[in-house]
Amino acid sequence: MTTESTAPSRVFRTEGGTNHGAIGLGIDPRLTGAETKGTYSLFEYVVPPGLGGPPTHIHSREDELFTCVEGRVTVELDGVEHVLAPGDSPLMPRGDPHVFYNPFDVQTRVIAVVSPPGLENYYRELSELAPGRDMKLVAEVMTRYGLALR
Question: How far apart are CA 40 and CA 140, in angstroms?
């Protein structure tokens, strides 16, 4: 049986990644669609204490799976609030409204698997916007990538 890898072997360290920070989050694209031959993207999100997070939104193209690896984070899935501790993993299928935020007094780190890939391009564009939360500009970028505010 022949198997073909979808991504190169490597070790990811907590520090030293590429930060495409946007709307207050640290966003480190660990693997892009180009590196996984179009199967998924992998991200690390650093959510500072007290961060309100992105507004409630819907992805029309991607499914997301988060795993909280440090601190705690609140995730609302279709209007139901869940507090995640390290090791907790919510699945956020495309089409389901969701939001996450850190109302706690310590930093949170989340690893996210996104399939299919492409969200790395969205984050890159967001990171290129002027600092601040000009939601009109953010909404324009969201629309290009199949995301919508709820």
Answer: 24
Instruction: In the chain, count H helices and then E strands.
Output: 2, 10
- Could you tell me where the DSSP H helices lie in the chain? 119-127, 135-144
Bridge partner list, 98: 57, 77
In degrees, rounded to 5, the angle at the alpha carbon of residue 61 between the alpha carbons of residues 20 and 140 is: 55
Task: Indicate the pTM of the whole model.
Answer: 0.84
Residue 88, CB half-sphere, CA atoms under 13 Å: how many? 14
The predicted pLDDT at position 34 comes to: 92
Lookup result for tokens 């070790």: 11
Other Cβ atoms closer than 10 A to 38: 14
Residue 145 class from Cβ within 10 Å (0-12 exposed, 13-18 middle, 19+ buried)? Answer: middle
Give, in order, the Cα–Cα distances in Å from 89 to each of 26, 58, 64, 92, 108: 19, 18, 10, 10, 14
Place of tokens 């935020």: 101
| Amino acid 78: pLDDT | 84
